[in-house]
Design brief:
The complex is a heterodimer. Chain A is of the alpha+beta class. Chain A has eleven helices and 19 strands. Chain B has two helices and six strands. Chain B is of the alpha+beta class. The longest helix of chain B has 11 residues, at 84-94. Chain B has a four-stranded antiparallel sheet. In chain B, strands 1-2 form a two-stranded antiparallel sheet. Classes of the chains: A alpha+beta, B alpha+beta. Bound molecules: flavin-adenine dinucleotide (FAD). Flavin-adenine dinucleotide (FAD) binds next to helix 2, strand 12 and strand 17 of chain A.
């Protein structure tokens, strides 16, 4: 069924009895051309683009839990393309362009809301670095605006501008950045993939790979063995655990990132604001809750929950930047397991095993990448060549010295 | 999380900084034939286990000692804490 304003009225007048389930729940077939392991945002987007754009048929997505149970349903929903390096920025700008027409492409309301992201600077050198980043963004075709302290003050007058230690000296604004409803993104991609014939199989954990003559010819799952010509892994925080079953070690550690939501408030914050002296990003959802987060907890973990010291730290940052929020009450908090790569950038690549592909290392910035990651991964799987915007996301970059290290801080699994 | 420091007793994990896998103590020989591959493994590749994990913590807000902590990455339960210095000395003895 195509969703439209007409349908909403028609269904509303006929007791809303005509709505259909958004995707089928098929049993797995014996074999597929392409199996995607992991039904998160990236897995579902990959299925959508494989079927719709690259003309592939006979595809299954195997998901251990339910659609949306991973990081796609746990993130703070920020979508932006304000990276700097050559290997990254064109990819993220490609992604933002896909976001801008995603709802039409999927015929699904993902509540994409381009209300802008404002990164704050607190010193002269930070402002200069922002000017450089802004220029890199402009070169990639993205939008960027360097704001003086006065312009920032006009836009968000409620910030603590004259903090003795961290005064606000400037800001970098990307007006086209914004937020989208994370679950709706998963559901929209799932619905579209399903409509294009992809089997989405939930509660189906991949427990191993079937290998023959050094080639991957299928997977072992909790619902039995399934053959495939190509197997594409896309499991975010579980990357090391799954690829270990193919005998691979990855340049990835799993860490927890927490998110926090306040009670619903009237409109308080117009767009997304990030504090440049600590690590805090904050936006307001359409329901009115302030959605905010900060750094990783800082130790390896597969538990989808964090600890108190990080909460205290994030809230202290928030009080430093926006003291008027001190009386807002915290409503909910949760954590997601992140696939932290050693240079803060992702991998979309073939493995050394024929027929086995890998997509991961998204750190805590993979939501904004969802459409481009799906497009690039689908391109790689369908054509065996990397997508033009994703040529640098290779496994061997760590051995070759071709790291894409936005922060310039060396081998660390805690970058961004 | 509480880390039971061998000499200082139970301390809040917030006093510590986490570095990563305890294998980081075993720096490869830079003169080895395959030093490039060895350093690639050492610097970038990780086992990243789900379960027991031996890792380095630094007591920054305390006595500035390095500890080797064995912690379960699924439950956060800590089962063993040793001074990294003692672990290094044992390793040197047995090699
Ligand atoms: C608190 C938080 C805030 C974040 N904020 C942002 C943000 O503001 N902006 C942004 O761009 N990014 C953000 N991110 C990052 C973003 O959410 C992730 O990078 C992205 O969602 C990862 O890709 P995914 O959607 O495919 O992952 P997931 O949804 O985690 O998908 C992986 C799927 O694989 C499944 N799986 C695992 N093992 C197996 C197996 N053996 N067999 C079958 N299936 C398996 C899992 O169940 C899961 O559903 C945030 C993350 C968190 C946790």
């Amino acid at each position: 069924m195509r969703y439209s304003g007409f349908q909403v009225i028609k269904q509303g007048l006929t007791g809303n009895k005509g709505w259909k389930p958004v995707w089928r729940e098929p049993e797995p077939k014996k074999s597929y051309d392409i199996i995607i392991v992991g039904g998160g945002g990236h897995g579902l987007a990959t299925a959508h683009y494989l079927a719709k754009k690259y003309g592939q048929k006979n595809i299954a997505v195997l998901e251990k839990g339910w659609i949306g149970s991973g990081n796609i349903g746990r993130n703070t929903t920020i979508v932006r393309s304000n990276y700097m390096l050559e290997g990254n920025q064109p990819f993220y700008e490609h992604s933002l362009k896909l976001w801008e027409s995603l709802e039409q492409d999927l015929n699904y309301n993902a509540m994409m809301s381009q209300r802008g992201i404002l990164n704050l600077a607190h010193s002269d050198s930070q402002r200069d670095a922002m000017a450089r980043r802004g220029n890199a963004m402009l070169l990639s075709g993205a939008d960027a605006k360097l704001m003086t302290a006065d312009e920032v003050r006009k836009m968000v007058p409620f910030l603590n501008f004259d903090n003795a230690r961290f005064p606000i000296t400037a800001g970098l604004l990307q007006p086209r950045a914004g937020t989208a409803r994370h679950d709706a993104v998963a559901w929209g991609f799932a619905r579209s993939a399903d409509q294009h014939g992809v089997d989405i199989i939930q509660n189906c954990e991949v427990t191993g790979f079937q290998m023959k003559d050094g080639k991957c010819i299928g997977v072992e799952t909790s619902k039995g063995k399934i053959k495939a010509k190509k197997v594409a892994v896309c499991v975010a925080g579980s990357s090391s655990r799954v690829m270990e079953k193919a005998g691979m070690r990855l340049p990835i550690e799993s860490h927890v990132l927490q998110a926090f939501v306040s009670e619903g408030l009237k409109l308080t914050i117009p767009g997304i604001v990030t504090f440049g002296a600590g690590h805090l990003y904050i936006s307001q959802s359409d329901k009115g809750g302030l959605v905010f987060g900060g750094d990783l907890d800082g130790y390896n973990t597969y538990a989808q929950r964090g600890n108190m010291p990080t909460l205290e730290h994030v809230v202290e940052d928030m009080m430093g930047l926006m003291p008027f929020l001190g009386r807002a009450r915290l409503l909910r908090m949760w954590g997601g397991v992140m696939d932290m790569s050693m240079d803060g950038s992702p991998i979309i690549d073939k493995t050394h095993i024929d027929g086995l592909y890998f997509n991961g290392g998204w750190c805590y910035g993979g939501f904004k990448a969802t459409p481009a990651s799906g497009d690039a991964y689908a391109h790689l799987i369908a054509t065996d060549t990397p997508h033009p915007t994703a040529t640098k996301f290779r496994f061997d970059r760590f051995l070759r010295g071709g790291m894409i290290d936005e922060k310039g801080s060396g081998a660390q699994p805690n970058l961004h | 999380m509480i880390i039971n420091h061998p000499t200082l007793g139970p301390r809040d994990a917030a006093e510590f900084v986490h570095l990563g896998d305890a294998t980081l103590m075993n720096r490869p020989d830079w003169q080895a034939e395959d030093a490039v591959e060895q350093f690639h493994e050492y610097l970038y590749q990780r086992d990243n286990p789900a379960g027991d994990y031996r890792e380095l913590w630094y007591h920054e807000q305390g006595d500035r000692s390095w500890l080797v902590v064995t912690r379960n990455t699924l439950t956060h339960e800590i089962t063993d804490v040793q001074m990294a210095r003692d672990v290094a000395m044992q390793q040197a003895k047995s090699s």
